[in-house]
Amino acid sequence: MVIKPVQTPSGRELFKLRKGQIGLGLAMLGLVLGLIYWSFDSYQTHDRTRETILAEESDSSALVFVQREAFGLVVELEEFQLGQRSAQDLLMARSTLAQRLNVITSTGQSSYEVAGPEFRKALEALDAELSKVQGQRQAPNLAVATEEFLSQTRQLSEKFQALSRTNAQSAIADRALIDFWQGTISLMALSLGLILFLWVIRDLSRGFQRGFEELEQRDRDLAAARADFVAIQSLDSKISAWNQRLEKGESLAHIVQEINEDIQEIAGPKEVTLSEVGELSFRDGVSGAADYADVRVLLQSRLTELIAQIQKQAKADLELRWEQNHDSLTGLLNRRGLTAELSAKVAHRNGHELLVADIDLDGFTAFNSSMGPAAGDALLKEVAERLKSIECKKILLGRISSDEFGVVALTDADSMPKLVSDIFSAVNFQTSSFGPSLQVTSCIGWHRAGKEEDISEVAAKTGAALKSAKLRGNPGSAEQFSDERHSHLLTSYLEQVEFREALISGQIVPYLQPIVSLETREVKGYEVLARWNDPERGLIPAAEFIPIATQGGLLDELFETMLEQVCQYWSKNQADQYGKTFSVNLDPKSLQIRDFKDRVLRTLKRYSIAPEALVLEITEQSLMLEENITHLEQLRDRGISIALDDFGTGYSSLSRLSSLPVDILKLDRSFIVDGISGNSEAMLQSIAEMARQSRLKVTVEGIEDEPTARKLAEMGFDFGQGYLFGKPAAIS
Fold it and tell me: Using 50, 70 and 90 to split pLDDT, how confident is the model at 701?
């Protein structure tokens, strides 16, 4: 058996054939361009001549429109004098006339220069008369001026027509000379293209003849070699017979197996084998093994390189597809991958129930800020591993945003409640991975997809269920989608849109309620209370729209609106408000905004208000994060006072408050709503004493009668607020 590589002898002639093809292409291109240029130039010659004549006559045509507009001006004048038109209509007609005049040109000169002094004088007289009619109904000389202008316009038209005929004759003579040279150049281009075309045809014919001769010689060489297997190698060292099959997607193992069968059929079983990595192996002692040397070197080098390239490309493609559809941190599907899989599950359920769930970790942003990004990543990985442990054969898991996970599962109706319970347990758990035992909670919105629902409906309903679960305000809530709840969410969303528009349009206005000294009854400041002044519903109290603003994340915008309006009022009444303060309620989330402190200070500076005049009222929730405490301390350092609102309704203690950036306690009205006696008196007395020791001022809210005010003053409380001293009133 002989195995011999044969390098294709037609390579040199293939290059010549390619050269001939290039030459043929150039020749055809020259021929086509010459013909196109010839025909196009002939058309352009005629067209440009026609355009020249039309251009020379355009001024005369335009003067026809000038005459028409002038006549229209006369009609406008008559209707003006009859009271049917206004002075503005006359000016509009004059403006149209001016536009007609401005487009008239001839021999590079403006129409005004060609017209001469008589035309310009008539136009000036017309303008002078038009200026008189703006404030009156009578202008006797306007008709005379218009008639004079019409006469001058007709004379100008005759002058332009004479000029146009002369210029057109000159343009046609010039065009004839240019056309002669353009025709000559076109003929030369066509001749050159024909010569090049004939030369390329001759070269191409010779190339084909030599190529066929070499191919016949190759066939004679192959017949003389009597090879049982031939590897045809091209000029770039590629084994074309194999590459083509691989590029078409045929399995490399299948090709190798086929070659092995052919080789072993001729050389004998196990005499020569070709491995899947492209290595030829020969049994020792086989006579004539040297005959395989050439093909062995060729096949081993090329096949090894080829297989390595295929494997590398396949690995790269696989990694790229994985990265495009997976989250690199947790290994779960990303939003794109999960959406694609959800589309497939929606389309092919095969009788199963489809459950889709959205999961959002509670308080992850605060955890990530306080514990650091590394701890945040570790928590996300732990949640992902717990989700992977859920027992369900047909389940897909994904991380679709920073702290949001998704679950898509096919199951039966009986197993769905347990699956929901397993998902809930996986994302609501205790962990000691970060020091003391940490309770991780998550909100879950899930939906049992109907058979007729498409992917957009399923995703929208799942998202609505998650939104509903989060709005309940309870950590670790799970809610299934329902039409009733979704309708409520839609109504809430529309209310949020309406409230945002009210903020923008200035319908949300500040009201001020006085805060007085219980000892002297002198007004020491005001609390700023928001009211919605709706044009249709009237004045809406804060209790009705604050929940809407909270759900829509609009409390920070509300704070800025109130601060801006009160600062504007305070700046105009600095003398009356000297020494007094104004208190504005602050949402805890506003402190998380990067430039919050700078925005507050810039607003005060813009209206020349001292920081000491501002009191920020916060809730106990603002003191839960160390980062918020730092921001409050920075504001205090600038002179702004901090008041803790609704004290006594949460879990704060006076001993802890002494170390926090708080200057004023606002005692909730629940302490005095039933009067001061017995246990309530003892509790109030204790609070007053401890506040004095901590050097904190105390404002008691909800005071409505004089005996209560006197009793609180005797106990040592500093300030009071309530209907006894004044109801909230508009700053106007």
Answer: very high
